[in-house]
Design brief:
Layout: H1 10-36, H2 89-93, H3 101-112, H4 120-128, H5 137-168
Length: 170
């Protein structure tokens, strides 16, 4: 039957197929790189008519290195855009000073506000249900809301039953 089988994750399957393709391409690249390197005894295989004396200024070329080339990046590019913290906030957060009402309000607000998402585009895709195989957030919220309503009704009926039994036993 398939009751206890886990449904395949389409994103994981796609990631596996892409990883296989990457491995195939890397193998092909390494095979082609080995085909481009001249054999070590290539100088001895030259015909006699093509051999001429090498110029004394010519230097033997070093084999190409396979080191990655990195782009120059500034040390901290976004640091200047941050606002400097207000003076005294560090001492409040460390518990050295009694916090102001505004600090208490800020801490209380931080407890109830979700942090901003790190990937806005992914959040939009999930909210709209644009990724095949994944449910939209609206659908997930509706399921969670219905589950909470069901639990509240069951607990209410259970409490009503307990109170009815206690009331009749008096």
């Amino acid at each position: 039957m398939g009751l206890f089988r886990k449904k395949p994750d389409p994103l994981a399957q796609r990631a596996q197929s892409l990883n296989r393709r990457i491995a195939e391409l890397e193998a092909e690249i390494s095979r082609l790189n080995h085909g481009l390197e001249p054999p070590p005894n290539a100088a001895s295989q030259r015909p006699a008519s093509a051999s001429r004396p090498a110029s004394p200024k010519a230097k033997p070329s070093a084999p190409p290195s396979h080191e990655p080339v990195f782009e120059e990046m500034p040390a901290r590019p976004f640091e200047s855009s941050k606002q400097p913290p207000t003076p005294g906030r560090e001492s409040v957060e460390l518990g050295l000073k009694r916090p102001l009402v505004s600090e208490w309000w800020r801490r209380l607000k931080r407890q109830f506000v979700d942090p901003p998402p790190t990937n806005e585009k992914l959040v939009n895709y999930l909210a709209a249900g644009s990724i095949q195989g994944l449910r939209s957030l609206r659908y997930e919220r509706r399921i969670a809301r219905n589950r909470i309503i069901f639990i509240c009704v069951v607990l209410g009926l259970l409490l009503w039953g307990v109170l009815a039994v206690v009331w009749h036993s008096r």
